[in-house]
Design brief:
By secondary structure, the protein is mainly α. It contains 17 helices and 2 strands. The longest helix has 31 residues. Its main location: membrane.
Length: 407
């Protein structure tokens, strides 16, 4: 059974100011999935650099894979969702692949095996993200896209905050047992997958009645309305240091024990949880491009706090607060912005194009920052990237401010 454009609940939701039930259900799916993924992400930097014994340059390569390999399938997933008009089933494949990858970490011990499993997980994420966001956009009133994405990201972030806490609890009960973390993570992924299969309706998008060809999708993605935001997104993405590096920097500076490392992820996700919905609403009111660029100002401040010599609890909390603010101002705001710059028929492809640019640019950033860390050390590497980001921000703003369509 599917829900068509004509009978979808978006219009009613928009009139009453409520977020569509489909959006909430997708938020629940993302919540369980993020509990799973963040359990793994919260232990991965220490697991790779201590248990597996990778150096920082090798970790930069793995982090680059984690950040960027999803680019391989993002546009394909978005286009397949547009072309078939049933994005749920494309998303379902992506969620399933990521779930299986959790349990596949158990026998993976060498660099190549771990890189392969992480690649599979990220390919699953790349395949599912644009179709899922297309369902959210299709199910929502256009004037409240920022709010809808904010609600979804809020539920998503509840899972992202719980995941590291559960990983912390598992490691407290069974010290050093990363395998236990992977098994529990798999169980949560299965629950999220089941909610998607059983409860999320098969929302049929406008593409089902007006299918866009590959030529139209390419024309809109490369058109002037989307070109400038994509250039700005790529420029900023290349100067975005992965969370794992920031947390390793804080952990080294403050000499945190391994068991407390997952709590750094909790702090960021709690800040994200607090600010996701307010910043989504703010983006609807003052402009999504403005909030998106403003989020990178918070990221710049996080670099300065993490790269400086002043350590301690207050500085660490400040880093986590700023990083969470950055994610709240960008993660849901970008697809909300892009979805208004392309036609309904290629919405999934447009969102996927933006996410592909983010993934590729962060892949480059991870490799570059790993090299900078090896050459110059933690503090100097962060300050160099911070300086470059400060120079790039005015250019990114000029590219984005003229391209946003009114809500």
């Amino acid at each position: 059974m599917y829900v068509s454009v004509r009978d979808r609940p978006a219009a009613a939701a928009g009139r009453t100011g409520r977020v569509a039930t489909t959006v909430v259900l997708l938020g629940v799916v993302s919540m369980f999935t993020d509990i799973s993924s963040e359990m793994v992400a919260a232990v991965l930097p220490l697991y790779l650099t201590t248990a597996v014994g990778l150096g920082y340059l090798a970790y930069g390569l793995v982090d680059g894979i984690y950040q960027g390999v999803s680019a391989v399938v993002r546009i394909g997933g978005g286009y397949a969702a547009d072309r078939g008009g049933h994005p749920k089933w494309i998303a379902l494949v992506g969620y399933g692949v990521s779930a299986v990858s959790r349990i596949a970490l158990l026998p993976a011990h060498g660099f190549a095996a771990i890189a392969g499993v992480i690649s599979a997980d990220r390919l699953g994420k790349g395949l599912r993200t644009a179709p899922r966001d297309a369902i959210i956009a299709e199910s929502s009133d256009p004037a409240q896209l920022g709010r809808s994405f904010g609600v979804h990201r809020t539920l998503d972030t509840i899972g992202a905050a719980l995941g590291p806490l559960i990983a912390f609890a598992v490691l407290a009960l069974v010290p050093g047992s990363y395998d236990s973390v992977f098994v529990v993570s798999f169980a949560f992924a299965v629950v999220g997958f089941a909610v998607l299969v059983l409860f999320v309706p098969d929302v049929r998008t406008r593409a089902a009645t007006a299918k866009a060809g590959l030529r139209q999708a390419f024309r809109e993605i490369s058109g002037t309305r989307l070109r400038r935001p994509l250039l700005a997104t790529g420029l900023l993405g290349m100067l975005t240091v992965g969370d794992g590096f920031l947390y390793l920097a804080v952990q080294q500076r403050d000499d945190l024990t391994a068991s407390f490392f997952p709590l750094l992820y909790v702090g960021t996700n709690v800040a994200y949880l607090i600010f996701a919905l307010p910043l989504g609403r703010l983006a609807d009111r003052i402009g999504r491009a403005r909030v998106f660029v403003g989020g990178h100002v918070a990221l710049l401040a996080a670099y300065l706090a993490a790269g400086g010599q002043l350590g301690g609890l207050v500085t660490t909390v400040l880093v986590l607060l700023l990083l969470g603010t950055y994610y709240a101002a960008t993660d849901g705001v970008l697809p909300a912005l892009v979805s208004r710059l392309v036609s309904d028929e290629v919405r999934g492809s447009g969102i996927a194009a933006a996410q592909t640019v983010v993934a590729l640019s962060r892949f480059v950033s991870a490799l570059a920052f790993g090299s900078l860390w090896v050459l110059f050390g933690r503090g100097h590497a962060l300050l160099v990237v911070g300086l470059l980001l400060a120079v790039a921000l005015p250019f990114a703003w000029r590219l984005m401010r003229t391209s946003e369509a009114p809500a």
